[in-house]
Amino acid sequence: MNAVFRKELADHLASRRFLILFVLILFAAVFATYIATQNIRSVVTPITEFIFLNIFTTSGQTQISFLFFLSLFIPIVGIALGFDAINSERSTGNLSRLLSQPIYRDSVINGKFLAGLAVLAIMIVSVIAIVAGLGLRIVGVPPSSEETLRLIVFTVVSLIYGAFWLALSVLFSLLFNRGATSMLASMALWVFFFFFMTMIASSIATARVVYDQDPARWYEIQGMIARISPRTLYEEATMGLLVPELGSLNLALLVSAIYGGRMVTPLAFSQSLLLVWPQIVSIIALAAICFAVSYVKFMRQEIRAV
Amino acid sequence: MSQAIVETNNLTKTYDGFTAVDGLNLRIEEGETFGFLGPNGAGKSTTILMLLGLTEPSSGTAQVCGYNPTREPLKVKRIVGYLPEKFGFHEDLTPRQNMRYTAELNKLPREEAERRISELLDKVGLSQVVDQEVAKLSRGMKQRLGIADIWMKEPKLVFLDEPTSGIDPEGIDDILNLIKSMAIKGITVVFCSHQLHQVQNICTRVGILAKGHLVAEGPIERLGRQAGGGRYRIEAEVDKVEPKLIESLKRVNGVMEVQSSGNLLFISCDKDLRGQLSRVIVESGSLLLEMKIEEYSLERIYKKYAREA
After folding, report:
1. Is the same domain home to B100 and B242?
2. Which of B47, B51, B54 is the mutation pick for testing A, counting most A CBs within 10 A?
3. Which of A26, A36, A85 is nearest to A64 (CA)?
4. Residue from the list A94, A96, A303 with its beta carbon closest to the beta carbon of B90
5. Is the N or C terminus of chain B more exposed, i.e. has fewer CB atoms within 10 Å?
């Protein structure tokens, strides 16, 4: 498996695909950080405890935070790294040659998946590190140890979110013989989860209850459905981690807290973690299911004579 | 009888209702160059995939180099090379890089791998292009690279599936010579091809597969005799055919049938009687212009068996 892993990793790192994605993400990250640092003064009050984390969550009038960028781009990177993992090997005739070498069959898919994951890790860690560094330079407030801890967990959650999309696109690369088809299928799912899921959730909630009469119930229904989407799960998990003041993921309570002008006390790290634990577990489960299905599918797939 | 390197026992493979290989009993001996023939879809590739443990047989068993490929695929794949009909290399890597990857997959020590890579690339005549991308190589070059690639693990047995298809005549000669030199090194070669004269040229024994059955197997000459029903057919051209000549030919011991057509005589006999026949013709007063014995070429053998199946 080591050989497959090393080869795939080298391929990814040397590919133009990687370069393009990295530049794109870097640009987005730097842009978001810039906006955040421009607006950070308006959100930071004298009693704000976690100034440094605000760099990641603050958005300008355009409503674009670094967090939003990550939730948007991590799926793209995951898909780009996995959508042709198996089918391109098959169509070039490399697969049968590869499988006739003395290696276990699962080391092919494991090696490919782990190489993708390693590239994702390199990208996510370096982008977060760059943003943190930039923020530190501009804002001038060093992160506290708790903030650092929160950032590390945030990085891990981002990686798991990326792993889900990677596993999904690897699965599609097994199901569809053509790279273009598997990429389109992954992108379609991404568009669905990213844009339509919240709309669908809102419409269903509206159909069930009238918002003005019972906003709490509306948010409950909306949230329940929206949480089918890994995007929602990721956003809730990362918000919970990066906004310690967030006492609940229930939007209704949040809204009333903001409008009621209530001062919220930040949660301890362990409490925040507890708050978003279901979300984190759900993302892990989604990624694990996708990978398990592709693993079984790949192991059982017949190598047929052409 | 020498040692069998491949032996199958009622090997059968069924793909959703369609039987690709049906009760195959195949025996390939160590060190021979075996021609594995059959029309497209006869089950040759499926058989090879089963022998490598890439596909599980529906029933029956196989032994390759003493291992069961279904149970111990890794042990088989360590000493067996397989060059599929449609294979590819990583197009953006050089031949050397591609072979390094194969070496890593075979867990060859680095120095040993580098030595073998240089030696083999030289042997297959690719030392000029080692540092060019594979995408820029011609088809014949890629095919030779494929041979170098499977040779690197120093296999005991190689399966070559259509290694000469779509290659120019000169390239074909190169590949056939490489196959011959593999055989000289003691590697057992299983050569699948539709190019029957190439098979006849390099193979000691052939097996003909049709509809999943092995319809004929053995050395080419023996198959030829079987195909001809044990008879020899001699064709003679004379300056004039007279009934007296035909009568006297029929009297020769061993002649079974004489037919004439124009100035041509077709004589069936149970052994090679060219000497006696020519004397009879000359003594009868006719002039013998040409005489030849019809050999059963592999092509005729193949067509006969493939049609019968």
Report:
1. no
2. B54
3. A36
4. A94
5. N
Strand (E) or helix (H) holding B34? strand B33-37
pLDDT of residue A1: 77
Helix axis angle, A16-43 relative to A66-82, nearest 10°?
170
Domain residue limits at B202: 4-225
CA distance B305 to B309: 6
Which chain A residue has the Cα nearest residue B85?
A: A306
- Residues of chain A with C-beta less than 8 angstroms from the C-beta of B54: 96, 99-100, 303
Q: b/e map of A181-215 (b: 16 or more CB within 10 Å)? A: ebbebbbebbeebbeebbebbbeebeeebeeeeeb
How far B249 CA sits from the closest chain A CA (Å)?
54
CATH number for B266: 3.30.70.100
| Boundary residue ending a domain (B225, B260, B279) | B225
The CA distance from B46 to B12, in Å, is 10
Q: Could you tell me which of B87, B299, B45 has the C-alpha nearest to residue B192?
A: B45
pTM reported for the whole predicted model: 0.84
Chain mean pLDDT for chain A:
86
Is residue B157 located within the same domain as residue B285? no
- Residues of chain A found within 8 Å of residue B105, distances taken between Cβ atoms: 3-4, 98, 101-103
Say if residue B161 is in the same domain as residue B253.
Answer: no
- Give me the interface pTM, i.e. the ipTM: 0.79
Closest CA to A187 of A106, A266, A83, A97: A83
Q: Which residues pair with B264 in a beta bridge?
A: B237, B261
Q: Which amino acid is at A114?
A: L
d(CA B90, CA B98): 7
Of B225, B248, B280, the last residue of a domain is B225
Identify whether B23 is part of a domain: yes
| In a shared domain, residues B19 and B157 | yes
pLDDT at residue A290, as a whole number: 94
Query: Are B240 and B123 within one domain?
Result: no
CA distance A2 to chain B (A): 9
Please check whether residue B306 lies inside any domain of the structure. Answer: no
CA angle A275, A277, A281 (to 5 degrees): 155
| Structure-block tokens of residue A270 | 């362990």
For residues B220 and B267, state if they share a domain. Answer: no
Give the number of domains in chain B.
2
- A247: confidence class by pLDDT, cuts 50, 70, 90: low
Strand B213-219: give its sheet, edge to edge.
B80-83, B157-161, B188-192, B33-37, B205-210, B213-219
Q: Are residues B28 and B174 in the same domain?
A: yes
pLDDT at B197: 83
Question: Do the domain assignments include residue B305?
Answer: no
3-state SS of A52-98 is CCHHHHCCCCCCCCHHHHHHHHHHHHHHHHHCCCCHHHHHCCHHHHH
